[in-house]
Amino acid sequence: MYKGEANWDLIRETKENPRLHIPVFGNGDINCPEKALEYKNKYNVDGIMIGRAAIGNPWIFDQIKNYFKTNEHLPGVSVKEKIDAAMFHLTESVRWKGPKLGIFEMRRHYTNYFRGLEGIKEYRLKLVTQNTEEEVIDVLKEIGQRYC
Questions:
Q1: pTM for the full model?
Q2: 8-state DSSP, 46
Q3: pLDDT per residue over 79-100, tens digit each?
């Protein structure tokens, strides 16, 4: 879907343009706190934006903010926090888009929420085949029982 890398040299050129007097933010390829700080400093931007790295990982914003302030990492996100976030996301998706579309559009997010959990594949398959909010929540509760 997305190929190549963002051209941060063009972002730096924009920032260094003497006729430009607005804040310039960089975006693209930022997927961890270290890279966020490195690129902010290296390319002299006023800030950075996060896109795809936040899909299934809404904690990245706090992680980056903390790293900018302390140069340290926050503790890892627990499985319970991931389940709670996925449930909230599902509930809001259904509320906003209705049950059919809300559930359908959530299917692409479960891989990101639970990436790296051993044995999650069977649950992910269940998550993407359920048709009601209640059924999906039941599967999320199953994940909680297994991993928490």
A1: 0.84
A2: S
A3: 999 999 999 999 999 999 999 9
